[in-house]
TrEMBL record:
Keywords: Cell membrane, Membrane, Transmembrane, Transmembrane helix. This is Chromate transporter. PANTHER family: CHROMATE ION TRANSPORTER (EUROFUNG). Its main location: membrane. Coiled coil: none annotated. It comes from Alkalispirochaeta americana. The chain crosses the membrane at residues 86-110, 122-139, 160-181, 201-220, 232-250, 270-289, 301-323. It is a multi-pass membrane protein. Belongs to the chromate ion transporter (CHR) (TC 2.A.51) family. Pfam families: Chromate_transp. One of its GO terms (cellular component) is plasma membrane. It is found in: Cell membrane.
Length: 325
């Protein structure tokens, strides 16, 4: 995928159509990042032709080696390709805001439902539906990238390693190793080319400064909103592999260490987000709201905002830094 192809921006007059398609993706993307890619393929490639299938696969590969929400970073990068950084930011808002708003509301509804003894058993049907979306996405993408013995072996090895090694760091390690194997088996004579890189370093500086500033602020100020913002920002830059990976990290700190909510309350929120379209990182809005529920309703909303903004911001900054390269 050439640099010219990557940076072909669509005129601003076409932005409303693109943003409408992003909203369609947001409202129809169930099942986690793997299933989201199938939605992107249908809506943004096949139907609208904003990019080619090969471009999409390469963007997925790029976003997969970065910490943060893979599907969110992928669609934001498509927005960047289509209309530049401003459209990328608007893409982020339309993609994430609907489910963030719902999860913020659900952080208030838990006590309401519990008081009326409304069972959460109805959620048990959502899991099998999500599995179906994931299987379809894996099949459709897999048949395009698994084309020979080498790629088949890489797929099987990656599947086994990531199943048995439950660590966030296994994802980038497997991807880097797979890339090295692919390069070593490549028949291209000029696979390495000298390029002059001039990335926007200020985004990387902001990425590190916010992380360091959050750690300092939590040490100086004993304010729960600051602690929540720092915690969720940290989740955003430490976790690879999507929403399913970040949940155990959040559970360990928010439930077991800080006791912001019970195990049942945490699992209820996770069950609810499984049945909603959009990025699974939106669970952070529910968790942030629940963690700040001991004060006023406005304070609880602020907690949800701290969770939602905090967990998505690192991945967004990394995309703004990496993609123009």
């Amino acid at each position: 995928m050439s640099r010219d192809t990557l940076e072909t921006h669509t005129p601003g007059a076409k932005w409303p159509a693109f943003l409408r398609d992003v909203l369609i993706c947001s409202l129809g993307a169930y099942g986690g990042p793997e299933a989201h890619m199938s939605v992107f393929l249908d809506q943004l490639v096949v139907k609208r032709n904003y990019l080619t299938e090969q471009d999409l696969l390469e963007l997925i590969a790029l976003c997969s080696i970065l910490p943060g929400p893979t599907s969110t970073q992928t669609i934001v990068t498509i927005g960047y390709k289509t209309g530049g950084p401003l459209l990328a930011f608007l893409t982020m808002l339309l993609w994430a805001l609907p489910v963030l708003a719902v999860m913020t509301t659900l952080s208030f509804l838990y006590q309401f439902l519990e008081a009326r003894e409304i069972s959460f058993e109805i959620l048990r049907f959502i899991g099998p539906m999500a599995v179906g979306f994931i299987i379809l996405a894996a099949y459709r993408i897999g048949r395009k990238v698994v084309v020979d013995r080498t790629t088949g072996t890489l797929m099987a090895t990656s599947m086994i390693l990531t199943y048995f090694i439950r660590s966030p760091w296994i994802f980038p390690l497997v991807l880097v190793a797979g890339g090295a194997v692919t390069i070593s088996h490549s028949r291209e004579k000029e696979i390495w080319k000298r390029v002059s890189l001039n990335p926007p370093w200020h985004y990387l500086a902001a990425f590190f400064l916010l992380g360091l500033g959050g750690l300092i602020a939590t040490a100086v100020f004993q304010e729960r909103l600051i602690q929540l913002a720092e915690s969720f920002y940290r989740y955003g830059y430490l976790v690879f592999g999507g929403g399913q990976v970040v949940v155990p990290v959040m559970h360990s700190e928010l439930v077991q260490i800080r006791d912001y909510m019970t195990n049942q309350e945490f699992l209820t929120g996770y069950g609810l987000v499984q049945g909603l379209p959009g990025p699974m990182f939106s669970f952070a809005a529910y968790a942030g709201g629940m963690a700040a529920r001991d004060s006023t309703a406005l304070y609880q909303i602020a907690g949800a905002i701290a969770g939602g903004v905090g967990i998505f911001l690192p991945g967004l900054l990394l995309i703004y830094f990496v993609y123009p390269v």
